[in-house]
Write a structure and sequence with these properties.
Helix content: 10-25%
Distance between the termini: 18 Å
Order of helices and strands: HHEHEEEEEEEEE
Oligomer: single chain
Largest sheet: 6 strands, mixed
Number of strands: 10
Structural class: alpha+beta
Length: about 140
Amino acid sequence: MTAASATAVTFDEVFKLYYSLKSPYRKKASFLCNEALLLQLMLLKDNNGNYIWKPGLDVGKPDTILNKPIRTSSFMPALAAGNKALVFGDYSYYWVADRQSRTFRRLNELYARTDQVGFLTTQRVDGKLILPEAVQVLQMKAGA
C-alpha cells in the first residue's frame, strides 16, 4: 500500500493498512514505526475528532492504535519518499535463526594491568519473513 504523501500519513491510510491485513493475522498483529512517525500518529483523529492513538495507562500495557499495540524502532526508515515507514502484522511469522555457532573468547592480557578479565562473544544470526501475507507495509509516496 502506498501513502498519498511522501512525508505524512493520514487516518484513512492507517485504517486501510489495518484492513489490508487478512483477519486471521490481525488477532496478534501490532504496528511498528519510528518515533517521528509515532508523533504524527499520536496527533491523528478519526472522522469524529477522536484521537486514534491511545496511551497505555496500565503498567505493562502498550500504547495502541485502533486497539492494536504500536511499537517503535530506531531501525525503521524515516518519513521520506519511497520509504516503508509503517508496518502492521503478526511478527510471529518472522523467524530468526542461527547462522553460525557462537564464539567466546577470554581476554586475559588486555585487562591484566587492572586485574580484570574481558570476554568477547559473537553470534551470527539471520531472519526471514516466512509468511509474507502476515505483514502489510505502508510505503511513502515516491518522489517526483
